[in-house]
Structure formats: C-alpha cells, structure tokens
C-alpha cells in the first residue's frame, strides 16, 4: 500500500532518482580525474543540463555534472545561444535552448521524410498511458528522422 501511495503522489520516482544520485555520489571518486570534454560535447551537455533543470530533474542534473565533470556553474545561456547560432523570439526565451533546436530541426525536415505509419498513433498511446509525464504536444504529426554519417 505504501508503494502504491508513493506512486500515486509521484514521490516514488523522485525517491528512486534521489537514491540513484546518492549512490552514484558515494561511489564517485573525487580524486579521479575526468577526461577532458570536447567543446562540442560541452555544449551538448550544457543543453542537456538546462533541459534537466527546466524540467526539475535535479538529481539527474547532479549525476550528469558529477559523472561528466561539468563545472558546478552552468555556462551562460547567451554564450550557448551565440555558440549554437540560435536566434530567439520572446516565447523561446522561457524554455531551454534544446527546445528551439528540436523545433527548428523539425520545421526544416518536415517535408524531407515520408510519414512513418503508426508513429502518431503510438504517440497518442503514450499520451494516454503515461502517468508521470504527460505528452502535451497537440496535433503532433512529425516523424522520427534518422541522421546518418554525421559527426559531432
């Protein structure tokens, strides 16, 4: 009954995430030098950190920062925006830059890939069955795009 109660309140997932973060922190050797992060990887990790912070995934953020060896203080959003050549409008300034990148990518690739049959239906099923994270993108008709041969 306790497990069900915690699940219903959404606390169980948070407890599990916190436990994983604490275990990782306990196992992580602070004297171990982390390998240098390439500039591209640093930008990607910072986009992920901003996304996690925005979505209140503080334990996931703490594991990411610790595991990868990111600086404790995030890079400035303006610096990220400039490095990634992102032009923002007023609404996009209130959400993580990753959303702008994904939105731009989708807009630029909508006509290049044929619709994958059943993808929209499976997204609708996810929206109907998800208990912890609701999919809120209405009228979602994009298709997954597989990028081949790119180098990060």
TrEMBL record:
Q: Name one GO biological process term.
A: cilium assembly
> Where does the record say this protein resides?
Cytoplasm, Cytoskeleton, Cilium basal body; Cytoplasm, Cytoskeleton, Microtubule organizing center, Centrosome, Centriolar satellite; Cytoplasmic granule
Tell me which UniProt keywords the record has, alphabetically.
Cell projection, Cilium biogenesis/degradation, Cytoplasm, Cytoskeleton
Lineage, top-rank taxon, reads Eukaryota
Indicate the secretion signal residues: none
Respond yes or no to whether keyword Cytoplasm is given for this record: yes
InterPro entries reported in the protein's UniProt record: FOP_dimerisation-dom_N
Q: Which parts of the sequence belong to the FGFR1 oncogene partner (FOP) N-terminal dimerisation domain?
A: 40-103
| GO cellular-component term (any) | ciliary basal body
Similarity comment:
Belongs to the CEP43 family.
Role played:
Involved in the biogenesis of cilia. Required for the recruitment of PLK1 to centrosomes and S phase progression.
By what name is this protein known? Centrosomal protein 20
Native organism? Arion vulgaris
Gene symbol of the encoding locus = ORF159123
